[in-house]
Specification:
The structure is a homotrimer of 154-residue chains. Chain A is of the alpha+beta class and 154 residues long. Chain A has a single domain (3-15, 22-153), classed as RutC-like (60s Ribosomal Protein L30, Chain: A, 2-Layer Sandwich). The first copy, chain A, has helices spanning 3-9, 61-83, 108-123, and strands at residues 27-30, 33-40, 89-100, 130-136, 145-153. In chain A, strands 1-2-5-3-4 form a 5-stranded mixed β-sheet. Chains in contact: A-B, A-C, B-C. Chains A and B meet through β1 and β2 of A and β3, α3 and β4 of B.
Chain lengths: 154, 154, 154
């Protein structure tokens, strides 16, 4: 089953990839690696109120996981635009997860699992990645989560 | 026009690359990739008072953009030292932007544009990169901005 | 002298590599690169009280350096598990250092030196890496330090 069919079977349709808002690009291919810019938890083109703010303050762990999941969906949308076809993905190599959090919010990995679980749901074993999760002081648009990715491609 | 001529036409001379201050190196080449250590907004060898502190507190967006621009200039200075000749750069693959910011400072991307714009000014289309921008709790020397880079090289 | 013999001569035995706690893996090999997930300052399988909390508050610089050193040891433990043999490492390409710190803690690089020094102790000149050090709002398990790595391998 293709990646997009798998996503569809779980009720997920990839959104149109967000356009860059400055002098950078959403994705760069170098050799067999695809680097994708940090993706915010955009939903229908905007960061919804439910996914704004800090874990440990205004955002619940569940809302944070949903935000992380949206970041992963947006990474795949960017990969599709860059590659033409998600079947070219051989492996998700690395995810970098940035959680907008208060200085005392501990369960950062649980939040990031929203992104990791989506990547494995979409790609199966090819979706199992190295990852780094940190809690940051602030993110663009006061988004709750931002995730960047490196993929190996064919 | 060469990268350095282009920079010169905009009044920019690359500084001498900063020496590492510990058991690490400014740049590592692996295959066709050049990884450059995070560069602070050093100007004449030091972080000037105007580029110290946090966005959202003591630093204006304009000063932050200037700090980000200095980081990009320092990345190119390190690339020149590592490569001998900036013409070996085929592409700026990725910039990672770290903005020293208060927990409520939103316009992180605008600050980081100071680095992205300089990279495109210097390298043209080869300078268009994937990027990730986050707001962090603190940076070395209380610098306002730190930027790291991956380049593809010939 | 092998990497492990060198470590042993300094009284360091690599621990068993920590298992992943979610839908990700400790390490991914792509081409000649080995990406290792961010490693916390685990000691005997847990983050000891001495290595929990923020630099600038409950943790001294010396304890932070020790935490960073533990992260580097855990990175090598993961590399050994991924590679079978640490002699396959040709170069430590990059370390990303994340220091759990208060907004006013300046000496981030000194803390990160605990990781850099260990890498050079273990690998000699092959251990000299590009690095980025930032102070973050929070880390998983309230760990004082997290470090991620990219290695070039044979």
């Amino acid at each position: 089953m293709s990646v997009e069919s798998t996503l569809a079977s779980h009720g997920i349709t990839l959104p149109e990839a967000a356009a860059p808002v400055a002098n950078y690009v959403p994705a760069v291919i170098t050799g067999s690696l695809l680097f994708i810019s940090g993706q915010l938890c955009l939903d229908k083109g905007t960061v919804q109120a439910a996914h704004k703010g800090k874990l440990g303050a205004s955002i619940s762990i569940e809302a944070g996981q949903e935000a992380a999941r949206l970041c992963a969906i947006n990474l795949l949308a960017q990969a599709k635009t860059a590659l033409g076809d998600l079947e070219r993905i051989k492996r998700c190599v690395r995810l970098g997860g940035f959680i907008n959090s208060t200085p005392d919010f501990g369960p950062l990995p649980q939040v990031m699992n929203g992104a990791s679980d989506l990547m494995v749901l979409a790609l199966g074993d090819k979706g199992r990645h190295a990852r780094t999760t940190i809690g940051v002081a602030q993110l663009p648009l006061d988004a709750a989560v931002e995730v960047e990715a490196v993929f190996e491609i064919a």
